Records
---
Amino acid sequence: MIFDIEYETMPREALEAIQLRRLQATVERAYATVPFYRNGFESAGIKPGDIKTLDDLKHLPFTTKQDLRDNYPFGMFAVPMDNVVRIHASSGTTGKPTVVGYTARDINTWASLMARSLAAGGATRGDIVHNAFGYGLFTGGLGVHYGAEALGASVIPVSGGNTKRQIVIMRDFGPTILTATPSYILHLSEVAEEMGVSFADLKFKFGIFGAEPWSEKMREELERKLHLTAVDIYGLSEVMGPGVSMECHEAKKGLHVFEDHFIPEIIDPVSGETLPYGQAGELVFTSITKEAFPVIRYRTRDITSLNPEPCICGRTHVRMNRVSGRTDDMLIIRGVNVFPSQIESVLMEMEGVEPHYQLVVDRVDNLDILTVNVEVGEHIFSDEVKQLQRLERRISKNIKDYLAVSAQVKLVEPKTITRSEGKAVRVIDNREI
Ligand code: DLL
């Protein structure tokens, strides 16, 4: 397997020359083989030959999730089905799933990128990877699996669920790398505690967590509870799966985008204008090496910003700051924008509050009411009602002070909020649209 790690530290100019060649080839092929792209380019009055510099990318039309749905299931594939060796799909919360395909070469590229991601996160050949990302149509399980094998590590394909059995495996097999969604990790640590297994006695060195937003405070909490170094992994099935960008364990400060395969842009989600480095907006990706499912200016709906500063790890690839949320997860409560991850940061500052919460939004008499249900520890819950009410008021005040949003806070009994085995459902929106 070729890992192409030399690209990770390449001087900018050399990297950009490679990106341009790859972009031109991708645009040519998408135009020639996918009617959606050909029609889009034609409506915009652009021919593939017009892409002469990387900057010309911004003249190409965007691709949205709706476009993928309109071409469900295989309409965006750029190769005949004979050449497709794998299909994944993401369920999404509404509408049809988005379906993506991979050629044999795409699978190799992905495995190599995932090996590079795991290495950036601290893994090496001698490691044992406990892979608790779900296997199946979701890209997390198989993505990590192929990457770990390509790296030469030993992978335990436990997937999500059967949590007690997972704890026994962790104790008996001695895995050194843990991969899962942060919300499932919380659940795992809780079950371990119930079973009398302490993470301090396990062998984990690094936790590679992602597939959902998680705050810096949550990182601290997980590192403390699990006795490991936690790093963030990002990706989406439309662009490839996990391994689009990855935090290095040396800096733990933003995720390096694998720019030899993907070109990131940040746009203003309303005007579509490209934004400069440092400014937060919607992340857009163009794939430049994929065969079966190339994406051109795909709007991820994820909110972040890009940081071009050099990193202590030596990688020259631009970093994206951790994703704070999705444009479609952003709650607008009486005109104030708020992401669940911001509420999470406030909650996790508070003594006695557990990292299990859910936000419920209702509309009463045309007013949006945000309720934050949050668990507290056993010892707190047995306190007097008055004390609990005081804590509720304190949390509510902090949310108001930090985020300028009014919320009703409800402390709930330990273990009453549904635990997640994959991505947590943080928001229940009861408002009628
Ligand atoms: O979640 C791929 C993945 C698997 C990434 C395992 C990391 C680890 P999808 O199911 O298509 O793919 O969901 C993609 O999840 O657009 C983000 O909104 C969110 N997401 C993924 N990683 C992160 C992260 C996989 N590290 C969607 N931080 C993306 C915040 C994330 N959000």
---
Amino acid sequence: DMSAIAPQPRPLVLAKDLAKTFDVSPPWLNRVLEGKQRLLLHAVDGVSFEIERGQTLALVGESGCGKSTVARLLVGLYAPTRGGLSFDGQDVHATLNTPQGQALRRRIQMIFQDPYASLNPRWTVEDIVGEPLREQGLTANPADLHARVADLLQSVGLSAMDMAKYPHQFSGGQRQRISIARALGTEPEFLVCDEPTSALDVSVQAQVLNIMKDLQRARGLTYLFISHNLAVVRHVSDQVGVMYLGRLVELADKQTLFATPRHPYTRMLIDAIPKMRDTGRARTPVSGEVPNPLSPPGGCAFHPRCPHANARCTSERPTIQFFSTGRVACHAVQEGRI
Ligand code: SF4
């Protein structure tokens, strides 16, 4: 009897084999005259993940690992070269170009890293926070808009009195709260946060992260949180995905990832986090540099930096393997060597 089977909870966000390639070739004429090659940058290559409603997935990695490209794919700023993305069962990129696109756009919002660059300096806070409401026709009249903006500012710990001010009158942390208030105007369900606190001082970062967690609980928000900083991610995430040169190398729930990291790159990142109670053991800085993403190493792209690399690693690219505690793309883990 099929009706007896409880419906499986469907992840709100589902990325399947997501890929984005940029053509960064020199102009055609240079290629012809100077014999230059066509150049493709595989910024994101075959990334899959799911995010349950009300949960936070953090994607971490060094710059150039493709995490910001994933963020831009999720909000529709880029179209995927391959693979797909669904939100609440709808194909995101197909839907954005249809009459239902606007409704979908309201449900997915993005918070950017730099609150200085993303807030128009000549607009008042009321204009900035109210713009998405006006643009989407979500307010009845100016008094209603005023009241909605006041509510939004209060929800991020600012005051209704702040409405008449301009961005330069606020600190960095307050400016980031203004951009969060703005993003919340359309009552989104999913927020894509690209390094939302990395431009801020450590103590201010903690305040903004706490506000984001409070908002998540109060509104049932789902987050994708992009960061280069594993220590930050530890406070906000349920699941953590580690990216290296466009690929996901490990994905696990937060406790598992921090307690028993499996991929050598994840281990390297965790060893580099300064310890809260310093036991005298020096932290191990991340060693080596990220290779040029235009000519990534063959086999496992991490092999030049990996203490566990062997001949297989230099020639064969590891694929993601599912374990009971998560997924890892590493030959040594698969072979039980580490
Ligand atoms: Fe290291 Fe090989 Fe695993 Fe890559 S596949 S992370 S080189 S052990």
